[in-house]
Fold this protein.
Amino acid sequence: MEVFKIKLAGLRFFSKIGVYEQERLVGNEFIVQVEIRIDASGFSEENLDSSISYAQIYEEVKAVMDKEWLLLETVAVNLKKTLLARWPFILGGEISIVKVAPPIPGINGQCGIEYLF
């Protein structure tokens, strides 16, 4: 089977996601990457209707990231559900969400999750 991987990388959002109330109050910067796989056998050259627009994927990601959440895992699962509801022909994908400045003493790097579906 021929497959297209559609990727959006380095998407930056300021979101209210975190276990601690203060994280949801002040927010944090997140970097999101989304990769989805679709069957390429139905692709018709120069016909966007036979693929998925990056802009439409971005709008779905933004809508999910604009909500308040406790866990990055919940964000990833809800993003998957949103994408599959809009484009049920998606074969699978990967979602990565990274918190740029986690409020954990001693951590000077980033923390995040990857979700494969």
Q: What stands out?
A: The chain has one domain: 3-116. The mean pLDDT is 94.
